[in-house]
Design goal:
It is built from 5 helices and 15 strands. With 265 residues, the protein is an alpha+beta fold. Strands 8, 9, 10, 11, 12, 13, 14 and 15 form an 8-stranded antiparallel sheet that branches. 41% of the residues are buried.
Length: 265
């Protein structure tokens, strides 16, 4: 039995309006056998970095052949390119504004095209809703088996998102909070690989709080207590067991995080 094509959707459209349903309707009109997977539609409006982080987190778990239809597009209707990308056995369709940067870093070499062939977009393209009229049709045609290079000319200069990088210093690692998740966990730009091997020797300083060691689970600290933990995306996170670390610390994206070795460790 041939597997149904998978199209995974991400946007900042929310769920109150018709926008997500309109994209799905266009997709199913072209590729009625598609299985539609919602990554999230709750990206904060125009927050490209938040969308990029979600795509980075989900990309390794998508079945081979999945087409990712992602729209976080402050430049809708402008001269920014519409692109389709093939990397690591997946396709990505959306605006060329850095949205795919982090996911592509985790996948094999990318091949990209600018979506320009009119056969693969709707006859009339709204300048305010290219998700429906340009990206959704292109994604559906790819899911139906269209070759990437049919959609338009090759491009080699995809826009890269400027993401803060943690700095290793003589004292330890200096990083920042990149995002706050639904539970109030502070997801940082400090990767698991950058942390010292002896996790119990670490102190983490954030928003005036000092956290001793890196926990293996939330339950290793009492309810209501802060902990540092390596989250499911391989990044250091600041959490509160049965609580909300962002609220407790009054922290947000950009809050500084400092990882240090305890003296004598």
């Amino acid at each position: 039995m041939t597997a149904r094509p998978v199209i995974a959707l991400l946007s900042d459209f929310g769920l109150r309006d018709h926008y997500v349903a309109a994209m799905k309707a266009v997709v199913l009109g072209i590729c009625p056998d598609a299985s539609l997977v919602d990554i999230t539609h709750q990206i904060p409006p125009q927050d490209i970095l938040a969308g990029a982080l979600e795509l980075e987190a989900i990309a390794p778990y998508l079945p081979g052949g999945t087409v990712v239809l992602a729209v976080v597009d402050p430049g809708v209707g402008s001269g920014r390119r519409a692109v389709a990308i093939e990397a690591g056995g997946l396709h990505f369709v959306g605006p060329d504004n850095g949205l795919f940067s982090l996911a592509l870093q985790r996948l094999s070499q990318a091949t990209a095209v600018s979506i320009e062939d009119r056969r693969f977009v709707r006859e009339r393209v709204s300048r305010t809703f290219e998700g429906r009229d340009r990206f959704a049709p292109a994604a559906a045609w790819l899911a139906r088996g269209a070759a990437l290079r049919e959609l338009g000319p090759m491009v080699s200069d995809l826009v890269a998102l400027d993401v803060p990088v943690a700095a290793t210093t003589r004292d330890g690692i200096d990083g920042v909070v990149l995002r706050v998740d639904h539970f109030g966990n502070l997801v940082t730009n400090v990767s698991d690989d950058a942390l010292p091997a002896l996790r119990s020797s670490i102190t983490v300083h954030v928003a005036g709080a000092t956290i001793e060691g890196v926990s293996g689970t939330y339950a290793e600290v009492p309810p209501g207590s802060l902990c540092a933990i390596v989250g499911s995306t391989g990044r250091l996170e600041i959490s509160c067991n049965n609580g909300n670390a962002a609220t407790v610390l009054k922290a947000a994206r950009g809050t500084s995080v400092h990882v240090r070795l305890r003296s004598g460790a």
